[in-house]
C-alpha cells in the first residue's frame, strides 16, 4: 500500500466511527426530547387542569354554599362564586380533554365526566333554589344533597391524578433506560474510536514517519562520511521506496566525485607540506633566510606569500631586538641607581612621619582625657539637677500635705462649733428640766438634782470646746508659717536649679568642643598614619623597582645572547655592543616605555597580518623577558 492509501484508510475508519458517535448522540437526544415533551404536555399540564377542576368544585361551589348557609356571605355573592367556579371547571376540563387520552385513562375520564354531569345537575338545582330566595330550601339542599352529589367527582379526579403520575413515572423510566443504552453505545463507539486512533498513530509512525526519519539520518551521515553504506527500504513499493532509491543513486555519484577530489587535494597538500617542512626546519636551526621558492597550487598561493612575508618581518624584528637591547642595558642601569637613591629618601621621610604620628597620638590622648573629665563633670551636674528637682518635688508634696492638714483643721473647727452648740442646747434643756422639777415639788426633787448635774456637764463641755478652738487656731497659724518657710525653700531650690542648669550648659559646650577637637586630632592622626603607610609602601615599591631594574638588565643580557643565535642574512649573525654602565643617558635616548619598541622598516609595518601577529608576539616576549630560543 502507498502512503496515500494508508493515510486515507486511517482517516476513513476515523470518519466512520465519528459518524456513528454523532448518530448515537442524535438518537439519544431525540428520544429524550420526545419523552420530556410527552411527560410535560400529556401528564404534568393535565395534572394542573384536574387540580383546577377539583379546587373549583371544593372552593367555588361547596365552600361558597356553606358560607352562605352559615351567613358569612350573602346568597347573591355565593351565586356569583358558583357561576365563576362553573366557568373555570368547564375551561379546565376542556383543556384536559384536548390532550392525548387512551386506554384506562379514557375509561376514568368518562367515569369522571358522568359524575361531573350529576354534580352539575345538583349545582343547577342549587342555583334555582338560590334564584327563588327560599332560605329554608337552600339550607336543606346544602346540608343534605350538595356534598353527596359533588364528593364522587373528587374521587374520580383523584384516580385520574394518580394515573397521570403513574404514566409519567413509566415514561421517565423508559427515558432513563434509553439514555443508559445510548451512553453504553457511545462508550463502546468511543473505545473503538480510541483503538482506531491508536492504530492510525501506530501505522503512520511506524510505516511513514520512522522510515522518513531513518532516511534523513542516513542521508546526513552519508553527507558527513563517504562510506559504502546503502540506504534502507530500497525494495519498498511506495513513496518511501522511490525516495530511498533516488537518494541512493545521488549519494553514490556524490561519493565518487568526492573520492576524485580527495585524491587531487592530497597530492597538492603533499607538495605544500614538504615545502613548509623544509623552511620550518631551517627556521628551527636559526636560519631566518629560508624562504619558500617552490610554486604552490593556486589554492595555497596566499599561504606561501604570507609565510615569506612573516619570515621577512621576523628577520627585521630580530635585528631591531638586538639594537634595542643595547640601548636598554644602559637605561636599566640608570633606573636602578635612581631607584636606590629614591628608596633612601623615602625611608627618611617615613621616619619623620612616624615621629609626627607619635606626637599627634599623645595630643589625641590628652584631649580624650580632658573630654572624659568634662563628660564626668557633666554627668555630676545632671545628678545635681536631678537632686534639686527631687527636693522641689518633696517641698511641693510638703506644701500639699500642710494644705490638707489646714483643711482638716477647718473641719475640726466646724466639729468643735457643733459640740459647743450641742452643749448650749443641753444646758437649756437642763434648765427647763429644773423648772419642771420645781413645779413637781417633792416628786421632782431627784430629777432636779440630775438636771443640775447635766447643766454642769454642759458648761464644762463649752469650756473644753473653747480651749480646743484656741489650740486649733494656734496650730493653723503654725501651719501657715511652715508653708511659707517651705515655699521659701522651694524658691531657693529653684534658683539653685537654674544656676546648675547654666553650669550644665557650659560643661556641655566644653565637652562638645573637646569632642570636636578630639575628632579633628583623630582625623589628622589617621591622615598622618595613612601618609606614613603610603610612604612605607612607596619605599617598598622603590626597592622592588630597583630589584626589577637589576633583573631587567640580566634579562636584556640573556635576550642579546639569544638573539645572536639567529642568522638574518649576508652570511653573518647580529652582534650586540658591550654595555656601558658609566656613560650617561643621551638626550635622544628613548624612554623606558618606548625602548622596547623595535625600529623596524615601513615594509615590515605594512606586511601581511601574519607578520604583525609574530611582531606582537616578539614585543610581548621582550616585555616579559621570555626565552627566545623557542623560535
Automatic annotation (TrEMBL):
Listed GO biological process terms: chemotaxis; signal transduction
Segments forming domain Methyl-accepting transducer: 324-553
Bilayer disposition of the protein: Multi-pass membrane protein
Primary location group: membrane
Pfam families the UniProt entry points to: HAMP, MCPsignal, TarH
SMART domains linked: HAMP, MA
Composition skew (Polar residues), residue ranges: 591-601
Membrane in keyword set: yes
Subcellular location: Cell membrane
Superkingdom assignment: Bacteria
InterPro entries: HAMP_dom, MCP_chemotaxis, MCPsignal_dom, T_SNARE_dom, Tar_rcpt_lig-bd
Protein keywords: Cell membrane, Chemotaxis, Membrane, Methylation, Transducer, Transmembrane, Transmembrane helix
GO CC annotation: plasma membrane
Comp. bias regions, Low complexity: 602-611
Domain T-SNARE coiled-coil homology: residue ranges: 483-545
Domain HAMP: 206-259, 267-319
TM helices/strands, residue ranges: 179-204
Region (Disordered): 565-631
UniProt family annotation: Belongs to the methyl-accepting chemotaxis (MCP) protein family.
Protein name: Methyl-accepting chemotaxis sensory transducer with TarH sensor
Organism in which the protein naturally occurs: Stakelama pacifica
Species classification: Bacteria, Pseudomonadati, Pseudomonadota, Alphaproteobacteria, Sphingomonadales
Amino acid at each position: 500500500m502507498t502512503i496515500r492509501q494508508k493515510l486515507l484508510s486511517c482517516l476513513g475508519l476515523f470518519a466512520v466511527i465519528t459518524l456513528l458517535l454523532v448518530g448515537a448522540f442524535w438518537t439519544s437526544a431525540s428520544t429524550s426530547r420526545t419523552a420530556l415533551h410527552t411527560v410535560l404536555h400529556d401528564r404534568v399540564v393535565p395534572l394542573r387542569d384536574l387540580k383546577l377542576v377539583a379546587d373549583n368544585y371544593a372552593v367555588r361551589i361547596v365552600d361558597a354554599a356553606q358560607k352562605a348557609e352559615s351567613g358569612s356571605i350573602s346568597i347573591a355573592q355565593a351565586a356569583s362564586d358558583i357561576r365563576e367556579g362553573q366557568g373555570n371547571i368547564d375551561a379546565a376540563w376542556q383543556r384536559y380533554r384536548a390532550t392525548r387520552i387512551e386506554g384506562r385513562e379514557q375509561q376514568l375520564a368518562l367515569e369522571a365526566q358522568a359524575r361531573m354531569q350529576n354534580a352539575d345537575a345538583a349545582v343547577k338545582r342549587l342555583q334555582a333554589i338560590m334564584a327563588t330566595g327560599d332560605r329554608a330550601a337552600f339550607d336543606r339542599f346544602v346540608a343534605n344533597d350538595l356534598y353527596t352529589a359533588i364528593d364522587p367527582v373528587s374521587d374520580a379526579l383523584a384516580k385520574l391524578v394518580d394515573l397521570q403520575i403513574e404514566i409519567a413515572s413509566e415514561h421517565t423510566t423508559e427515558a432513563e433506560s434509553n439514555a443508559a443504552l445510548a451512553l453504553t453505545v457511545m462508550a463502546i463507539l468511543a473505545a473503538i474510536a480510541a483503538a482506531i486512533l491508536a492504530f492510525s498513530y501506530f501505522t503512520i509512525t511506524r510505516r511513514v514517519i520512522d522510515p522518513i526519519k531513518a532516511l534523513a539520518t542516513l542521508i546526513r551521515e552519508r553527507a558527513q562520511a563517504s562510506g559504502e553504506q546503502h540506504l534502507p527500504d530500497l525494495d519498498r513499493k511506495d513513496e518511501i521506496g522511490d525516495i530511498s532509491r533516488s537518494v541512493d543513486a545521488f549519494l553514490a555519484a556524490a561519493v565518487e566525485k568526492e573520492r576524485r577530489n580527495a585524491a587531487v587535494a592530497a597530492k597538492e597538500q603533499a607538495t605544500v607540506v614538504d615545502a613548509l617542512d623544509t623552511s620550518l626546519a631551517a627556521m628551527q636551526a636559526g636560519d631566518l633566510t629560508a624562504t619558500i621558492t617552490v610554486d604552490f597550487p593556486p589554492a595555497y598561493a596566499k599561504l606561501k606569500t604570507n609565510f615569506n612575508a612573516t619570515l621577512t618581518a621576523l628577520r627585521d624584528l630580530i635585528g631591531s631586538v638586538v639594537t634595542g637591547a643595547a640601548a636598554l642595558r644602559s637605561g636599566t642601569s640608570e633606573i636602578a641607581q635612581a631607584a636606590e637613591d629614591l628608596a633612601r629618601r623615602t625611608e627618611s621621610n617615613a621616619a619623620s612621619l612616624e615621629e609626627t604620628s607619635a606626637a599627634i597620638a599623645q595630643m589625641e590622648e590628652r584631649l580624650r582625657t580632658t573630654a572624659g573629665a568634662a563628660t564626668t563633670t557633666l554627668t555630676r551636674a545632671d545628678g545635681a539637677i536631678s537632686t534639686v528637682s527631687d527636693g522641689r518635688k518633696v517641698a511641693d508634696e510638703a506644701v500639699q500635705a500642710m494644705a490638707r492638714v489646714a483643711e482638716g483643721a477647718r473641719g475640726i473647727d466646724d466639729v468643735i462649733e457643733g459640740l459647743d452648740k450641742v452643749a448650749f442646747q443641753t444646758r437649756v434643756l437642763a434648765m427647763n428640766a429644773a423648772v419642771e422639777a420645781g413645779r413637781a415639788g417633792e416628786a421632782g426633787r431627784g430629777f432636779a438634782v440630775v438636771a443640775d448635774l447635766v447643766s454642769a456637764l454642759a458648761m464644762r463641755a463649752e469650756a473644753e470646746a473653747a480651749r480646743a478652738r484656741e489650740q486649733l487656731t494656734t496650730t493653723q497659724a503654725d501651719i501657715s508659717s511652715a508653708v511659707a518657710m517651705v515655699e521659701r525653700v522651694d524658691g531657693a531650690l529653684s534658683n539653685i536649679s537654674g544656676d546648675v542648669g547654666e553650669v550644665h550648659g557650659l560643661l556641655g559646650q566644653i565637652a562638645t568642643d573637646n569632642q570636636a577637637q578630639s575628632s579633628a586630632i583623630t582625623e589628622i592622626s589617621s591622615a598622618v598614619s595613612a601618609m606614613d603607610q603610603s610612604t612605607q609602601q612607596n619605599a617598598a615599591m622603590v626597592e622592588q623597582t630597583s630589584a626589577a631594574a637589576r633583573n631587567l638588565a640580566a634579562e636584556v643580557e640573556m635576550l642579546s645572547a639569544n638573539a645572536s643565535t639567529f642568522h638574518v642574512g649576508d652570511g653573518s649573525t647580529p652582534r650586540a655592543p658591550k654595555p656601558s654602565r658609566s656613560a650617561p643617558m643621551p638626550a635622544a635616548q628613548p624612554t623606558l616605555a618606548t625602548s622596547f619598541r623595535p625600529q623596524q622598516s615601513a615594509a615590515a609595518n605594512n606586511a601581511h597580518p601574519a607578520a604583525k601577529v609574530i611582531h606582537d608576539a616578539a614585543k610581548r616576549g621582550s616585555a616579559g623577558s621570555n626565552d627566545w630560543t623557542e623560535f
